[in-house]
Amino acid sequence: MSLLSKQSKNTVVDPLMANNPISLQVLGICSALAVTVKMDTAVVMTLAVIAVLSISNTVISLLRKMIPAKVRIIVQLSVIASMVILTDLILQAYMYDISKQLTVFVSLIITNCIIMGRAEAFAMQNGPWRSFLDGLGNALGYGLILIGVAFFRELLGSGTIYGFQVVPDSFYAAGYENMGLMTLSPGAFIILGLIVWAQRIIGKVEQE
Amino acid sequence: MEHYLSLITKAVFVENILLAYFLGMCSFLAVSKKVDASIGLGFAVIFVLTITSPVNWFIYSFLLGDGALAWLGFPDVNLSFLKPIVFIAVIAAMVQLVEMVIDKFSPSLYQSLGIFLPLIAVNCSILGGSLFLVERNYTLMESTVFGFGSGLGWFLAIASMASIRYRLRYSNVPLKLRGVGITMLLTGLISIAFMSFGGIQL
Within a 10 A sphere around the Cβ of A1, how many other Cβ atoms? Predict the structure, then answer.
C-alpha cells in the first residue's frame, strides 16, 4: 500500500495480531462476549465499535491541545458517549431488528476499556490521522476476536454460519446434535480462553 | 415479598451479571489475582450498585423517559436518547459522593475500599445494571432489589474466582495457557455451575 507510510501501516496492522487489544492487552472484554451467539450481531457490534473508536480517537486527538489535563477524563468520556448515542440512534433507525437484539450492549460501548484506553494512551499524544488509524486498527483487532468467537459459537451451537446452515442434514440424521452449551454464556468464556491460548502459542508472546 | 426473593435469586445465580451477561470483566480479570483486593472490590460494587440503581430509576422516571417530564408541563418530551450519558454522569457523581461520605464516617472502610471506588465509575456492571432496569421496566423497589442482587452476584463470582486462582499457583498449568487463558476457561466452568441454578423458582 503506497497510500500509507510504513509507520501508519504498522499502526493499523499491529493491533490485529501482535498486540491485539482483547487477547493480549485484556481490554474491553466487557460487553464484547454477550453479542457473540450469532455472527450477524457480532458483525454489527464490530461495525459500531469501529465507528465509535475511530471517530472518537480523531476528535480527541484534534482537541488534545485544548483539553486541560485535570478534566481530560470527563472530556474524553463525553466525546465517546456522544459517538455511542449517535451510533445507537443510527442502528435503531436503519437496523431495527439487530438493534433490538443488541439491547443495552451498544450503550455499554461507553464503558468499554479499549476506547478510553486508546484515547488516553494514543490520541492524547498523536495527530488526528494516526489516531484515526490507531482507532481503526484496534477496533478491527477487537472485531477479529469477536467474530472469531461468534463463528465457533454459531457453528457448534446452531450448525449455521451467518444464518446459513452448514452442517448437512445427513449429519443430523446420523445422530449429530448441536452443542447447546455453546449458545449459553459458558461457551463464550471457553472459546475465548482457547483462542487466547492458541494465539499465545502461535504468536510466541512473552508471559507476564 | 416472594416476588423480590425470586428477583434476587435470579439476579445472583441465574442471570448473574458477570457470568451470564459478561459485564465487569475487565476489573474481574485484573483484580481477581488477589483475594483481599477482590473482596474489597466486590463489596464496593454491591454498595455502588445498590445506591445507583434507585437513583437512576428516579432520573429516568422523572426526567428522561417518554412523557416523564409531564410533571413540569412537557408531556410530549422524550429525552430517553440521553440515557447513557446521563447515567454515566450520575454514576460518577454518586461514586464521588459515596467516597466522601465513607471518608467522613468510616475512615477504616475508606482505607480498604478507597482505591477501588474510582475504578468502579467505569465498571460496565454498574452502567449495565442501570440500563437493564430501564430495559425491563422495573419499579423502584424492584430496581433496588435488582441492583443489590446483581452486586451480590458479582461479589460471589469474583470472590470464588480469586480463591480458585489462589489455589491455582500450586498446579501445573501449560505455560502458554497461564494468565488470561486459564482464567477464561475457569470462568466458563464457574458459569456452568451457576447455570445449574436455572430451574429454581421461589
Answer: 8
Q: Give counts: helices (H), strands (E), chain B.
A: 9, 0
Q: Identify residue A120 by its one-letter amino acid code.
A: E
In a domain, A194, yes or no: yes
Please tell me the pTM assigned to this model. 0.85
Any domain includes A99: yes
Name the amino acid, one letter, at B73: G
* A27 contact residues in B (CB cutoff 8 A): 26
Contact B176 A189 (CB under 8 A): no
Q: Do A194 and B185 touch (CB under 8 A)?
A: yes
Contact yes or no for A57/A134 (Cβ under 8 A)? yes
B172: left (phi over 0), alpha (psi -120 to 50) or beta: beta
Q: Is residue A7 part of a domain?
A: no
Q: For residue A99, what are the domain limits? A: 14-200
Number of domains comprising chain A:
1
Sign of CA dihedral B20, B21, B22, B23: negative
Q: What interface predicted TM-score (ipTM) does this complex get?
A: 0.82
| C-alpha dihedral sign at B127, B132, B134, B140 | negative
The residues with which A161 forms a beta bridge, in sequence order, are A164
Using CB atoms, pick whichever of B135, B175, B188 lies closest to residue A189: B188
Q: How confident is the model at residue A116 (pLDDT cuts 50, 70, 90)?
A: confident
> Is A38 domain-assigned?
yes
Burial of residue A69, with CB atoms counted within 10 A of its CB: 0-12 exposed, 13-18 middle, 19 or more buried: exposed
pLDDT in tens, A6-17: 777 777 777 776
In angstroms, the Cα distances linking B116 to A144, B12, B46, B164 are 31, 22, 12, 21
User: Could you tell me if A44 and A95 are in contact, meaning their C-beta atoms sit under 8 angstroms apart?
Assistant: yes
- What are phi and psi for residue B139, nearest 5 degrees? -85, 175
∠ CA A58-A64-A66 to the nearest 5 degrees? 130
